[in-house]
Specification:
It is built from 11 helices and 5 strands; from the N terminus they run αααααααββαββαααβ. The strands form 2 sheets. The protein has a 3-stranded antiparallel β-sheet. Strands 1-5 form a two-stranded antiparallel sheet.
């Protein structure tokens, strides 16, 4: 079988697994009965993976509703990686357009937070910057270097209190009643050892970290923090970041805003 024929065969195989029973007709005289078992196995694995990743969504909607929804999603978005660790990235946006979820408009954002937690938990590990490294940084270099964020750091900002609603459904608060607030909120995810952590952060801290995430210099990040809150304490933001292991290295930046 040539390379071209191999590619055609595997494309047809994927189509057959997805439900196109005639896709393999050039190679098989009749549809193989084992494909239905194979499809069911893949569908079951996809649903279990989604349930693990979007556990808060399942908690809020109930297992039966979630599994039916996950099954519907997986039909149009089958896994492309057997490991399933990265499966489900499209689920929050898909959920926003899923008619049965229309009466719970906060649910897609809850799914986005579940996804960020999962990304943080499954991210690669890296060295973490200590306080001495930062203390020895000359002030005249602040405009030409940045603080690289640890691979496990994830950030999100919302116009309403979605993060607090999500946190209310995590242990040890799980099950407590929570009133959704209209106030904007920002949340940070990171991982210490094997455990992912989530923290609400103020607007200045979020602005500082978000600027670093986008490759801005430490000086540019500090300016962003002061725009968000003129009375913020930059030493407190840096100390808190070091304590949580948010920074992995000090590196040059192409930032030319200063």
């Amino acid at each position: 079988m040539s390379t071209h024929e191999e590619g055609s065969f595997f494309d047809a195989f994927e189509a057959a697994v997805a439900g196109n029973v005639t896709a393999l007709s050039p190679w098989l005289k009749q549809p193989a009965p084992g494909f239905s078992v194979y499809r069911n196995t893949i569908a079951s694995g996809a649903i279990e993976a989604l349930a693990a990743t979007f556990s808060t969504v399942q908690l809020m909607t109930g297992k039966e509703w979630f599994r039916a929804t996950a099954r519907e999603f997986s039909r149009g978005h089958p896994p492309s990686d057997p490991a399933l660790l990265s499966y489900g990235e499209a689920f929050p946006d898909w959920l926003a357009n899923f008619p049965p979820a229309a009466d719970t408009p906060y649910l897609p954002d809850i799914a986005r937070l579940d996804w960020l937690w999962w990304q943080s938990w499954s991210a690669a590990d890296s060295a973490r910057l200590n306080a001495d490294s930062l203390a020895g940084l000359a002030t005249n270099r602040l405009g030409s270097v940045t603080l690289e964020l640890h691979p496990a750091v994830r950030l999100a900002s919302f116009a309403a209190g979605i993060p607090s609603l999500w946190l209310a459904h995590q242990a040890p608060l799980r099950g407590e009643l929570h009133q959704l607030s209209d106030a904007p909120e920002q949340i940070l995810f990171t991982r210490i050892g094997p455990h992912a952590q989530s923290h609400l952060v103020d607007a200045a801290t979020f602005a500082f970290l978000d600027a670093l995430k986008r490759g801005g210099s430490i000086l540019a990040a500090a300016e962003g923090a002061f725009v968000a809150d003129a009375e913020c304490s930059l030493p407190d933001i840096l100390t808190g970041g070091i304590a949580l292991g948010l920074f992995s290295a000090i590196t040059p930046t192409p930032d030319t805003s200063r």
